[in-house]
Amino acid sequence: MFGSRAKRFEALVRAYSAELYRYGYWLCRDRFTAEDLVQETFARAWNAWSTLRDDKAIRNWLYTILRNEHARLYERKRLDIADDFDLDSIEDTKLGGISPEMEMREALHGLPESYREPLLLQVVGGFTCEEIASIMNTTPGAIMTRLSRARLALRRSAGRAGKESSG
Amino acid sequence: MNCFQARRALLEAPRRRTNELEDHLGGCAACRSLATDFMTLDDRIAQAAAVPAPDALADRILLNREHGPRAGRKWAVAAAVLITAALGSAVSTQIADSDSDSTVDVVGPGHPAVAAISEVSREAPRALLSEEEASRELEQVLGRAGLALKKGEATAQYVGKCQVTGTACDRIVLSTPDAQANVILVPEFPLGKPLLVSDGRMSALASPAKAGGYIVVSDTPKNARRIARLFTKG
Fold this sequence. Notes:
The complex is a heterodimer of chains A (167) and B (234). Chain A is mostly helical and 167 residues long.
C-alpha cells in the first residue's frame, strides 16, 4: 500500500506522530519526555517492522508501544488502578476566573491516571472500549466503568464552567 | 435496538455510530438528548486535550532513523537504569505462594516471574495473528511445554517469541470474556512450586509445566490465577 518499507514507515510517522505525541503528553505531562516517547516508539516500530503482519493493527500497536515505553520510564511512579478513587476531589482543584477550556484541562489533569488514560484514548484517539482494553491490557467492562466515571466527574466540572462562562 | 443497547453503544464507541443506533436516536428523544450531551462534553474534552505537536516532529523522527537515534538511545539507557533500580530496590514486591497467599519481601529482578512482568511492560506484541493462525501456533507451543488449554475458554490473540532472563521463550496473549493475560512459556527453566509476584501494576503467576514452566502475567492477581486455571498438563 505504501510501497517500500521506508516509504511506508515515513507515511506512518507523518500520519500518527502528532496524535501519539498528544497521547504521550497526557501520559507524562512533559513535552520533552513526550517527544522522546514518540521517538522511541517509532524506533521500536522500525526495528520490529519485519514481524508486523496486520496493517489494521498498526495504530493500536503504536499506541501500545508508546504506553509500554512510558511504563518503563515511570514504572515505580505509576499509580495502581483505583476504581474507588474519590472523584469529588477534582472539584477542589478548580481555579477562579479561567476559561472553560483551561478549566477542562485542569479537570483532566486532576483525573486519576486510570480514568484519564482510557478517556483520552477514546475521545482523542477514537478507540472503542475493546481496543482500549487491548492497549491497556484489561477488560472492556473495566474500561467502560472507568469511562463512565471519568465523564461523570468531568461533566460536573464542565457544567459549572459552562454556566460561569455564559453567566 | 432498545435504550439500554443504544446507551451502551454510545459508551462503547461514541464516534462510530451504526445505522441501528442512528435509527434509535431518531425515534427516542431521551437517548438523543443524552447523545447530544455526550458529544458536547467529548468535544470540550478533545479541545482541552489538543496539545499542539512540536514543529517538524515527524522530520526529526525520520532523521533519527536514518542517522541513528542519539536522543532516543540516551533515553533508553536512562529508562533501563530506572527499570533496573525499580526492580532491584522496590521490588518490595509481594511474592506469594499461589495456594496459600503467604508473602515474603524480597525477590530478585532475575526471577523469571519479575522478568516476565518487565518483558510484558516493555514489549508490545508485534502484531495480531488471525484467529486460525493463532490457534494453530498455540497448540504447537503448548504441546512443546506439555500443556493444553481448556477448549472454548480463551482465545489466543498473539503467539510469538520473546526473551526472558536471556532465554528464548514463547509468548502468548490470551483473552477470556473477563480477563486478558500474557503467558510466557519458559521451556528450559525448571520452576518449583507455583509463585505469584505483583509489582503494583501487574501480577505474574509462575507455575511448573511438564517441560519448563509457564508464567501468566495479568492486571490483577485474580485474573492471573483465573487464566492459569485454564491450563491443564497435556
